[in-house]
Each structure stands twice: as structure tokens, then as C-alpha cells.
Amino acid sequence: MLPMSPVPLLSLLLLALQSVWSSTPQEPKVQGSPQPEISSLHHPTWSLGLQLYRSIRVDASKTNTIISPLLLANSLLALGGGANGSTVAQFHDLLRITKNEKADREALTRALKSVREANGSSYTLHSSSALFSKQAPALEKSFLETLQTHFGMQHVALEDAQKEPDMEKLQSWAKNGMDGEETAALEQALESKPGAMILANALRFKGFWDRGFHLESQDLRSFLGTKYTKVPMMHRSGVYRHYEDMENMVQVLELGLWEEKASMLLLLPFHVESLARLDRLLTLDQVEKWLGKLNSTSMALSLPRAKMSSAINLQVIV
Ligand SMILES: *[C@@H]1O[C@H](CO)[C@@H](O)[C@H](O)[C@H]1NC(C)=O
Ligand SMILES: *[C@@H]1O[C@H](CO)[C@@H](O)[C@H](O)[C@H]1NC(C)=O
Ligand SMILES: *[C@@H]1O[C@H](CO)[C@@H](O)[C@H](O)[C@H]1NC(C)=O
Fold it and tell me: What keywords are assigned to this protein (predicted)?
């Protein structure tokens, strides 16, 4: 069976979902900790990520939506450390922090560490996080130190005295952290009133396929997105984990990264359609079902060679 033979018209190729991050197996588990490892769908970053993804997609925006739940969870954890009263509970709810707070925190930190450690061998990753503040009351020194040392988060003051507008400052900060690569620009302006604190994360990820596509097996083909365009397509045949979900009319295909410790899931609808229906399918239960049903199948793949970027302003979502 060749469910994805290299036909010139690959109907809309969609949602890429980082999946199955696995922490390094040799690390000892925290004794008695109920916290699942990040490779498990029960890890809190999964529910956080899918919940956020669905909220972002509600307005059916045409842009790509790329988020790193892990980076976001880490930043929320960092900020939560400076919160008090009911705000603490809100952070804990989002991150599903239980009574075993210390173990939960450690599990998140450990997950981030393991992802950072594979940098260079399985993918290249650039990430920066910062807390920008605008004429905010002085922040406690010990809090800022914890941000820096535990979470690698800088603090940047946006002051009036500096001529550069806030948005430009954020943009150049992001670019610096990405090794000078251009970053996507925020479409909506940030509301940064005096006293505001802005949490910013920037991420650049380039995965190395476990089974790479060769430059010579690349050509220009017609591709149907919202209209026909010519795009560079790369081709490869091999055995991939795949599942054809007849009920939901979508093929699910897994491409391995990081020696199978991570992967990218591609959802390929049977027909050309907008993303709305697939966006709604993306629940934890559904993803779990799909992952459980993937089966090794020999197939020929044609994928557009793509670079995706997105800038998301969460201020307008919550
Ligand atoms: C946290 O809130 C409590 C009252 O809810 C207050 O007594 C305490 O001083 C606050 N702590 C900080 C660090 O602001
Ligand atoms: C990953 O490695 C690159 C160098 O190859 C480095 O520039 C970058 O800062 C590293 N990323 C992280 C998150 O440590
Ligand atoms: C994979 O395919 C084999 C043979 O068709 C079948 O026996 C097996 O149940 C399938 N596995 C899953 C997880 O569907």
C-alpha cells in the first residue's frame, strides 16, 4: 500500500505536532514522584500545549501556530515563584502542579534540561526567555536572581528614556537570541502600559530527521494550499509509522527525530479543507489514540520543504 504516493498534488498538508519528547532515560526518577515523564502524554506540558493551541486557533487565523509548551511551562513556573495568593493557584492549575510541588517542579526542569542536552546532536535549538518590565515597581533582587540562575530568564527594563519603541526592542531581543536569524513579527501591537510586565519566549528549532531527505531528490511541484503554487518538494521512500483514521478522514504519519526519542506527527486529511475541523480533533484523547494505532508501513513520501514561523501574542487570547 502506498497511501502517500508522490502525486504532484498533495492536498493541504497540515498540523505538525512535536510529540513524544523523551527525557534521557539514564536519569534517575525522583523517588515517589507521581509526575509522569515528558515522553508521556500525561505530562502536564501536553494538556497545556493542546489547550493553548485550541485557544489560539479559535479565531481561525490563517497564520501558522507554533508553540513550545515546554518553554512556556518553564516560564510560567519561573513567574509563579514570584506570585502570591490566588495568583499562585492559577499558575499551579495551568501547570497541574499537585501537592508534591517540589517533584513537579523538578520534573519540568529536568525535561527542559534533557531537551537542551540533545541540542546539536538531534536538532539545533535556540531559545531565550525574558521578563520585560515597563516602569514597574522595583522587582525583588532574589526573585530576579532565581529567574536567571534556575530558569535562564533575563530581565530587561523597557524605559522611556530609551528611544527605541517597545516592539522594536522585543524584536531585536528575539533576533539576538536566535543567532541573528530573522524572527516572525508580531502582527498586533503589545499593550505595554506603565507598570506592565511582559514575558517573552523566542524559539528556533531545526530537527535532523532520523532518515533524512536527500537534496538531490528534490524538485518543484504544484501544491494546493488556498491556491495552487509551485513549491520545492522532497521525496523519500521507506518504512514509516502510519495510521489511516477512516472515521476522522485523516492519515496520521510519524517522522522520527532524535533517534526515535522525538518525532513529528503529520496529519493529512483525505480531502482539501480548511484547518478548522482538524484543529478541533486535536485533543489529548485523540492524539493518544492515534499514537497507539500507528503501524509501520512502507510508503513513498513527498513533503514540501518548508520553513515555518509564527509570532503569537497571548495578550489577545486570554
Ligand atoms: C502574600 O500574601 C499574604 C496574605 O495573603 C501576605 O501576608 C504576605 O506578606 C504576602 N507575601 C508577599 C511576599 O507579598
Ligand atoms: C544550541 O547549540 C547552538 C550551537 O550549536 C547554540 O548557539 C545554542 O545557544 C544552543 N541552544 C541552547 C538552547 O542551548
Ligand atoms: C499493525 O499491523 C499488524 C498487521 O497488519 C496488525 O496485526 C497489528 O495489530 C497492527 N498494530 C496496530 C497497533 O494497529
Answer: Signal
